[in-house]
Amino acid sequence: MHEGHRERIRERLFSHGESLTDHELLEILLFDPINRRNTNPIAHDLLDSFGDLEGVFNATPRLLCTVAGIGPRAAEHIWMVGELMRRIRGVKNRRISLSNFGEVSAFIRERFDGCKTEKLEVYLADVNCVFLCAKTVSGVRKDKVSLDSQTFGYILSEVKPVNVIVAHNHPSGNSTPSEEDDRCMREISRMCHMHGARLCDSVIVGKDLYSYYYTGRIYSVEYKE
């Protein structure tokens, strides 16, 4: 009964998470630290004790432990989430912008600093070129990395970015694109087009940075119907 309920509410979280009530979200949050009890009444008690979600996540671990069913482990878990939320609020106005080559190049140099093996990264951004998330692919072969189309398609469908930037490095130091680089970019551009996104740039990291957009090479690999 318990396991069946947890599975059902988890399915709702993945399919229609926005429809979950405050106490249902708390209930799910408590699944890990409280794995052998029904967390639904505990979630209700937390909200009754502290008024709302903000009150719950601002409560100290000692105060949280005054609620029946909340032990040190659960209190630590709740407080940690609250601390993460406070830190997110503190930096919400400092989101990463990738709207020009200066911002893009600084971002990429930092992420590839000290990288000795070849890797490929895809940066997904919104309509204002604000960074949403990244997908990193490390090569199993020293001289080649590639992005699986099925995996990339899934990421695009889930995140729904408007703009996409690709970066990968050439450990040899020579940042000149190869025919394989062009082929890979054409496929990525095609996948972006299928999902309503635009491939803005592809940057190769070597001794210098090579930008497909800055050099105009992006137009030779851009998908055209």
Brief summary:
This protein is of the alpha+beta class and 225 residues long. It contains eleven helices and five strands. The N and C termini lie far apart (53 Å).
Topology:
Layout: H1 2-16, H2 22-29, H3 40-50, H4 53-58, H5 61-64, H6 72-91, H7 101-112, E1 119-125, E2 131-138, H8 149-159, E3 163-169, H9 179-194, E4 198-205, E5 209-211, H10 212-215, H11 218-221
Parallel strand pairs: 3-4
Antiparallel strand pairs: 1-2, 1-3, 4-5
Helix pairs in contact: 2-3, 8-9
Task: Please outline the major beta sheet.
Answer: 5 strands, mixed
Low-confidence stretches: none
The string of secondary-structure elements, in order, is HHHHHHHEEHEHEEHH
For this structure, the quaternary state is: single chain
Distance linking N and C termini = 53 Å
What is the number of helical segments per DSSP (H or I, 4+ residues)?
Answer: 11
Structural class: alpha+beta
Number of strands: 5
Q: Outline, from the CA principal axes?
A: elongated
Q: In percent terms, what proportion of residues is strand? A: 5-15%
Strand order of the largest sheet: 2-1-3-4-5
Q: Which architecture name of the largest domain does CATH use?
A: 3-Layer(aba) Sandwich
CATH class category label of the largest domain:
Alpha Beta
- The helical percent reads 40-55%
Q: Whole-number radius of gyration? A: 23 Å
| Mean pLDDT across every amino acid position | 89
CATH superfamily of the largest domain: Cytidine Deaminase, domain 2
CATH topology of the largest domain: Cytidine Deaminase, domain 2
Number of domains: 2
Key terms for this structure?
225 residues, alpha+beta, DNA polymerase, domain 1, Cytidine Deaminase, domain 2, elongated
